[in-house]
Amino acid sequence: MDAGWDRAREAARRMRRGAADAGRAAGRAGRATAGGTARAGRATANGVRSVGRATRRLTYAGGAGRTGLGRLIELSAGNSAGDALVTVALASTVFFGVPVGEARGSVALYLVITMLPFALLAPFVGPILDRFRSGRRYVMAGTLFGRGLLCFAMAAAVGPGDLPTLFIGALGVLVLSKAYNVSRAAIMPNVLPADITLVSANARVALFTLVAAGVAVPIGAGLTAWLGSAVVLRVAMLAFLALGVVAVRLPRHIDSPDLEEEGSRHRWRTLLKVGPAVAEAVWANVAIRVFSGFLLFFLLFLVQDHAVPWLAGRDAFFDVPRTIALLAGAAGLGGLAGAAVANWTRNHAPQLIVPATLALTLVTAVVTALLFGVWAALAISLVTAFAQELGKLALDAIVQREIGEEVRSSTFGVVEAVLQLAWVFGGLVGLVLSLARDASTGLVGPAVTLAAALGWLVFARVRRVRAAKAEAARKHGLYDPEAHSADDDAAASAPTAEWPAPAPAERDPRRGDTLDSTKPLTNPFG
């Protein structure tokens, strides 16, 4: 009996020792796991800090940190990332998913319903913003706070499928996003360092916004697939609210003093009242934007219908999903390249960049129509996105240079509305021409349109230059109708009664371009 109890006690002791050893082993494993997690967290935090410091050096380069341009670039990048999250979250909903695989009529209805309301509201955004020039920081913050509240409402509407709330919320987000972009473009001259041109400053903003959106899209897609659209919309809400606080903390000199006298009427801007330089740049960008919308839906439906040579032959590699992915990647790469090139064109006038982008698009369209294939389709997607981005940045610089502070936001509002309508019109044309199922034939009409736009632009520029030279010669009594030519583009901006001459410029011996003699080397408010 005693021997049995001894054996039982020994077995119990062995079990206790085994449990203790197992506990110690589990503790060691837990500590190792916690240590590894902590080390991974520290490494991730160090990597994020390193990326943040590198980004800060890029955004604050060239005096951008002193004038507030760097902080505006960071705010715009966060704004772009928030918009990307909203787009990805709404893309999976019932109403806002583009019905690519459905009939062309459904896509046309989608374009009309989702784009035209914004195009009709956009012209009213600019005049409203012009009335609050002395509080532009708070206007920008208001657009961010407003989008945060709309994201909260849409997140609550996703579950029950409340389509009216989703539609109104998405339209409000789109309008407020454009209002932010209009305000940001209008204040760019206020934060411009003396050694950075307007085209380069706009290019920096565009480059960082494109990169931020490119990073946010896969993150938003992963979160949507894992947690759902409502969670992503709530994440976007928090991001917009935090960015609104950042906007309020922008430098004070972003706000422009209200210099208008009491009782003065607020003027509205149309394309007939912006001056010849701005009007020509706008119409050139309209032609590029029409072709961009056309090309997107034209190629998309040709690929869906297997009406392209590499799909008609059932190529083993270039199937429909891969072709669409490659075309989208080429367009994204072209937009990044356009922003990067614009940052390097600091010594070239924006009025020369605009016709150059139009001519590049025309040449590429003609070559693609003659030699259509998979590589030609990728090339024209890349070049069109490149020309659209570079031409738009040059247009922004021209508007910022030529239009006065009191109506600059109104001008940008009209320009954004016209460009949006041009893109929608081009998309509808692409839907119709894709019915022919012939890529080369479908590209002929848009190529002719681009050629006509370029011809008109050159003719208008030559006529304007000759008229300006003749007027200058007539004032000095030296007019000779056979002597003047169109080789001096500077005469295109000759002063008139409506458009006075710009401030005199002087050449900095340290650099190759001209500097405005009225502008200090750094912003005095920075």
Gist of the model:
The chain has helices at residues 2-59, 64-67, 69-91, 104-130, 136-158, 163-187, 198-227, 229-248, 276-304, 309-312, 320-344, 350-370, 374-402, 408-433, 439-475, and strands at 505-507, 514-516. By secondary structure, it is mainly α.
Describe this structure in words.
The chain is built from 15 helices and 2 strands. With 526 residues, it is mostly helical. The termini are far apart. The model is unreliable at 260-266 and 483-526 (pLDDT under 50).
Task: List the topology elements.
Layout: H1 2-59, H2 64-67, H3 69-91, H4 104-130, H5 136-158, H6 163-187, H7 198-227, H8 229-248, H9 276-304, H10 309-312, H11 320-344, H12 350-370, H13 374-402, H14 408-433, H15 439-475, E1 505-507, E2 514-516
Helix pairs in contact: 3-6, 3-7, 3-8, 4-6, 4-14, 5-6, 5-8, 6-14, 7-8, 7-11, 7-13, 9-12, 9-13, 9-14, 9-15, 11-13, 12-13, 12-15
List the keywords.
disordered C terminus, single chain, 1% strand, globular, 526 residues, 2 strands, mainly alpha
